[in-house]
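Subgroup meeting minutes
Present: P.N., E.W., G.H.
Scribe: E.W.

1. P.N. recapped why we're keeping a running log of single-chain structure predictions: easier to compare across weeks, and new members can see raw inputs and outputs side by side.
2. G.H. added today's entry (331 aa).
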Amino acid sequence: MSIQRVTMRQVAAEAGVAPMTVSYTYTRPDRVAAATRARVLEAAQRLGYAGPDPVARSLRSGSTGNLGVVLGEHLSYAFEDPQAARFLAGVSQVCVENRLGLVLIPNTGGPDDVDRVREAAVDGFVLWTTTDDDPILAAVVATGKPAAIQGGPAAPGIVAVTPNDRAAAHAIATHMLTNAQRPLLLSLPLDRERQAGLMRGPTTDVRFPVTRARLTGFKNAIDESAHLWRDTPVAVVARHSRDEARRAVAAVIDEVRPDVVITMSDQLAAGALDATAATVLVSGWDDSELASTLSIPSIRQSLRDQGVACARIAAGLEPTADAADWSLALH
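Output recorded in log:
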């Protein structure tokens, strides 16, 4: 037997007010006198009215009141990775300030990713950095909804919010290469295949724009030093984590015997220190609390501010954003 849903009109009749007053009680309570609002809520409670149907409301208004966050990692990454968590905190700040919901949309690399984006009940999209060839980009653009991506890639219809990673990478590598004899670079994944391993002076097509920009900056610094790019060892991790970094460095330490490890994140830097028993100089990226604790140089940037900027674009509050700030932090 089906249960008949109590309607807004029934609540209005019970409370002796207009249906619009019931609607405002739930959606714009500041526009309803306190006594009237209390009378409406009491009537709703007596009748068992749970509030306006969100689906019907979104169909009428053309708005869901939600922002979608597309993550190219497993969902737990959003809570386990400190920088991803900071980025989401920035997105959440905008949602709270503008009374918006937040929907996490996993980008797994599977065939249903595009459908998941197409069917998402959201008004705009915030994307965590992905690869140039990720079909999710075209799917987001096809929705016609505002979208912004942290770190890139930019695309027509998707605004990239990112610092100048190439310049930042050049700055920290130049600092670390002073008096370095055997540098090792520790890189984030190159493409969606996420193959870990050691290479020398990679010239392969790097599909993650963040990884590509940072490798280019590192290469520029190497070219300006006494080292040769073609001889420079680069250890690539499959996933961004401290454990992955520890394993990657441990696997090559006997072959490379590094005296300096230049990494692409503070988490990777911590893993490198774990693998070398802190006997080498290591740099990080993000200038998190971990960088200060480990007393390592790092690139200071605010992922929270980038989350705010992306969310404001996705919410239609801003059309674009300036390049994110960065600086070299020496501890």
